[in-house]
Request: fold
Amino acid sequence: SWNTANLVTGQVEVANKFAKGLKLELSGSSALNSAKRALRTKIDYQQDNLFARVNVDALSPAVTADVTVSREGALVGAEIAYDINSGAVTKTNSTLGYAGPDYLITLQGNNSLNLFQLAFYQRVTKSVEAGARAVYDYKNPEGGVSAELGTKYILDQDAYVKAKVDNAGRLGLSYTQLLRPGVKLSLAGLFDTARLQENTHKLGAALTFEA
Reply:
């Protein structure tokens, strides 16, 4: 492809050629009016209970890899990034999770285990969903804990409302209505309940078209 910014990009992809579930991808880009260049290689491998990826940025150069293993609802995942020039690990993330018939719980350790996140989701009834999330920042023990609760109520097949509140007193509300097939209207607001008299609130609207 060649776009109006004079950026030329190309991509080659081979899937299931050398092994079932293995996909190889080579992509690159070059700006004709500058020295901006990019060259990346991506390897994906997927089986029933395994998904692994390796991304190599040849010009940085840097390597990012992640793997996820699941079995009978349980899930374990890890991600690592390595800078070849400095010889240092720049990112490590890990995840534990379990998916039940109508609920999901996950525990994530990010930023070299300096940031932890615990999340829970449950479908209470056919029309009610609920979730909660707590985050702890190890590097910021004072005020480093945040939490929020959220819920979704399905009014009918064309409309639903959402609400969430966090420990800072911010209340979020939204209403989504399907106007016609492929056209959806959303109205939302974020209100600071601790400063109701101040101009800190936000209102928004979105109109989405889908083919």
Summary: The chain has no helices and 15 strands. The chain has a mean pLDDT of 94. Residues 58 and 114 are 29 Å apart (CA to CA).
